[in-house]
Amino acid sequence: MSPRVPSETTLQRGAIAPRWLRALPVAVLLLTVLFQVSSPDPAVVGFTTAVVPLVAAFVVGPIWITGMAVVVIGFLLTPFFRPAGLDARDLFAFGVVWSIGIAFAWVRTRFQARLVTVENVAQAAQYAVLPSLPDHVDGLSCAGLYRSAQRGARIGGDLFDIRASPFGVRMVLGDVQGHGLPAVSTAAAVLASFHEAILDEPDLERIAARLERRIVLDTDEGRTPELFASVLLVEFRDDVGEMRLLSCGHPPPLLLRADRVEEVDLKPRPLLGLRLDPQERPSCVSTVPFQPEEVLLAYSDGLSEARDVDGRYYPLAKHLSGLVLPPSPGRLIDFVWDDLTRFAARLDDDVSLLAVTRARRGGRSVERADG
């Protein structure tokens, strides 16, 4: 299952306007012809055809407008419909207006094609930073969601993934400082370093060191500006029924159990990218039991810092209390996102969610215990 981005209108190459909208210029043109025939002052009505190319430029392409221009000019040259007093200067004015409409339509279609290209590039970048999540990874079920703070943008500085490794299933959820291309580039580099490190490093501290080294090296080589990143690393061990967690300046996740919601007690290390000496980064790995029918919910600070109209922060743990467990990760993610959008006046930062539980057969919906 891919990380889900709340749907927005997606541009497609060759996309066309709805039929009713494309028919609007033709309807205006037909009405003009009708008025031309029935009006006692056909000269006035004839000049109203000048509005047709301006309307058409927003909904159809230059070829269509060129065809309509030929029809209109031919219509005006027909003796039966030709307005009295129409001379060469008037025809020239008509030609200029229709030429402007054709030019507008050409610019619009070119601009739309450029937007399609940019959106395709953004989508490719999204898959680099937020790769597709499978429904199951070695006995675990998972689901993720990402929402960019920039309206209309698909990607920002957040990243997450979950993959199997020789040392168990490992998960990362991180947040790179800032927005825009520098944050996206740093997030992609951190995620690529994570994919390599989990195959070689036996503990989470070494994985965190590899991620920080990547950030520092990219900064020193001038590839990216100096940015910092918060990261949550989790290792799931199926053989012992527990998980190990390491936070580098990241908000602690929530653990949903059958009768309560708990914030996992972590001792976070400093952010990645601060260039601290190793002794300034003490070992802060926490080991927590993780049994079937329990759900780990990790999130970025964009969620915890969301506020309502009165300035109150979003109380995620409070809103999750009373849920009937075990929900599927996907249903839990949907519930949190819907609840957040109802609560928050606006979202000023990227929001990432990642839910993980031990895979089981069957399951029940997310419902409130109080009905």
Write up this protein.
This protein has 371 residues and is α+β, with helices and mostly antiparallel strands. The chain has 2 domains: 19-122; 130-358, PPM-type phosphatase domain (Phosphatase 2c, domain 1, 4-Layer Sandwich), CATH 3.60.40.10. Helix content is 41%, strand content 18%. A hairpin with a 2-residue loop joins strand 1 (136-137) and strand 2. The chain is elongated, with a radius of gyration of 29 Å. Mean pLDDT is 80; it is low at 5-14 and 361-371.
Can you describe this structure in just a few lines?
The protein is 41% helix and 18% strand. It has 371 residues and is an alpha+beta fold.
Helical residue percent band: 40-55%
Let me know the number of strands: 11
End-to-end gap:
29 Å
Fourth CATH level, the homologous superfamily of the largest domain: PPM-type phosphatase domain
DSSP helical segment count: 10
Order of helices and strands: HHHHHEEEEHHEEEEEEHHHE
Task: Indicate the mean pLDDT.
Answer: 80
Fraction in beta strands: 15-25%
Q: Give the number of domains.
A: 2
Assembly state: single chain
Structural class: alpha+beta
The rounded Rg comes to 29 Å
CATH topology of the largest domain: Phosphatase 2c, domain 1
- Note the main sheet: 6 strands, antiparallel
